[in-house]
Write a structure and sequence with these properties.
With 381 residues, the chain is α/β, with parallel strands linked by helices. The chain is built from 15 helices and 13 strands. The protein folds into two domains: 256 residues, Crotonobetainyl-coa:carnitine coa-transferase, domain 1 (Rossmann fold); 83 residues, formyl-coa transferase, domain 3 (2-Layer Sandwich). The longest helix is centred in the middle third of the chain and has 24 residues. The chain starts with a strand and ends in a 5-residue tail after the last helix. InterPro entries: CoA-transferase_III (IPR050509), CoA-Trfase_fam_III (IPR003673), CoA-Trfase_III_dom3_sf (IPR044855), CoA-Trfase_III_dom_1_sf (IPR023606). It holds the Pfam family CoA_transf_3. This is CoA transferase.
């Protein structure tokens, strides 16, 4: 699989990194100006963004001015060679560049074209700007997150961005597999908001089926039940309790020496949660984990980011990798898929902006003097 990647920031680069990790050839197409904004965001390793490295390994980069006629022609030549294109512009941008799906599919009928956007390619919000927080808000997920009677709380990770990126991978792979047998590509419309709405299936179906409107901090899985909640420990840390099943709650109560808590499992009132909290407030997090760490109950510590790499389960799963960069080696999160019987290729670092421009142009048949002329004219860089 060969992928042209016209995306920026997080959702698209996360999607194409997954494809690259799985063996696809991914070429980032960046404009000669700002390029991928993620290069300038977040903490830095020397001159480079750590965040950019986190989602752009195993890719190449080419700087190309798609507004210039020569840049457009180079891009069309690339489209004829590649199987997949993914872009994250607002609807209409590719058409204004003369590079819409109809034109590109006429150049390469097998092309799988994925349009990844905030609100999708149609509807009254299709051209509206937004970020993860906005898509979460519109989908209802933000309104369900937080304590009852309190304000909505931002999740610690970008749910819409990352889930949308993952959905783009699903759509691309499905369309690509089909193209291998039909010889025809497809147009894949992925909206970050749509993806979050699909993740709201339990709560939205509950409401639409007439079983009651879910609310923040009152439901079985968002902090309403005493048996499925977060509790503070004596030392100011926190533990997660997920004892939905009776057997797990019974084990918790037995080991805690608190049979009086048995009837409180599915209680939704403050009094029940406070009774459980009193038990956890009597012990440190370490004492809680020593008490429950080897018994059949669903209690785990709420870890800070600095504690995650040292957790024994995380270490056993080899979820981190060393990645060389131009500024030195960094440790980053590895591909989570564990595939047996699949050859694993060596990883390489995120590319510099336009690092492979000349290489790609040579591959297309351009001579050295042509490449220099294109760079001088601001067409490529």
């Amino acid at each position: 699989m060969k992928v042209l990647d016209l995306t920026r920031l997080l959702p698209g680069p996360y999607a194409t990194m997954i494809l690259a990790d799985l063996g696809a050839e991914v070429l980032k197409i960046e404009d000669p100006g700002a390029g991928d904004y993620m290069r300038e965001m977040g903490p830095r390793l020397g001159r480079e963004s750590v965040w950019f490295h986190a989602v752009n390994r195993n890719k190449k980069s080419m700087r190309l001015n798609l507004k210039a006629p020569q840049g457009r022609e180079i891009f069309l030549r690339l489209v004829r060679e590649f199987n997949v294109l993914i872009e994250s512009f607002r609807p209409g941008v590719m058409e204004r560049l003369g590079l819409g799906y109809e034109i590109l599919s006429s150049e390469n009928p097998r092309l799988v074209y994925c349009a990844l956007s905030g609100y999708g390619q149609d509807g009254p919000y299709s051209r509206r700007p937004g970020h993860d927080i906005n898509y979460m808000a519109v989908a209802g997920a933000l309104g369900l997150t937080g304590h009852r009677e309190g304000p909505p709380v931002l999740p610690g990770v970008q749910v819409a961005d990352l889930s949308g990126g993952l959905m783009a991978v699903v759509g691309i792979l499905a369309a690509y597999v089909k193209s291998l047998t039909t010889g025809r590509g497809a147009y894949v419309d992925v909206a970050l908001t749509d993806t979050v709405v699909s993740w709201m299936a339990l709560y939205l179906t509950q409401y639409l089926a007439g079983a009651g409107e879910p609310h923040r901090g009152t439901e079985e899985l968002n902090g309403g039940r005493a048996c499925y909640n977060i509790y503070a420990t004596r030392d100011g840390c926190y533990v997660s309790v997920g004892n939905l099943e009776a057997k797990f709650w019974e084990t918790f109560c037995s080991v805690a020496g608190r049979p009086d808590l048995l009837p409180l499992q599915h209680r939704e009132d403050d009094e029940a949660r406070q009774a459980v909290q009193e038990f956890f407030s009597s012990k440190t997090r370490a004492e809680i984990m020593e008490l429950f760490g080897t018994v059949d109950t669903c209690i785990e510590p709420v870890l800070d980011v600095s504690e995650v790499p040292e957790h024994p389960q995380i270490k056993a799963r080899n979820l981190f990798m060393e990645l060389p960069t131009r500024e030195g080696s960094i440790t980053t999160v590895a591909q989570p898929l564990k595939l047996r019987g699949v050859e694993v290729k060596a990883d390489f670092p995120a590319p510099g902006a336009g690092e492979h421009t000349a290489e790609i142009l040579r591959r297309l048949g351009y001579r050295e003097q042509d490449i220099e002329a294109l760079k001088s004219a601001g067409v490529a860089g």
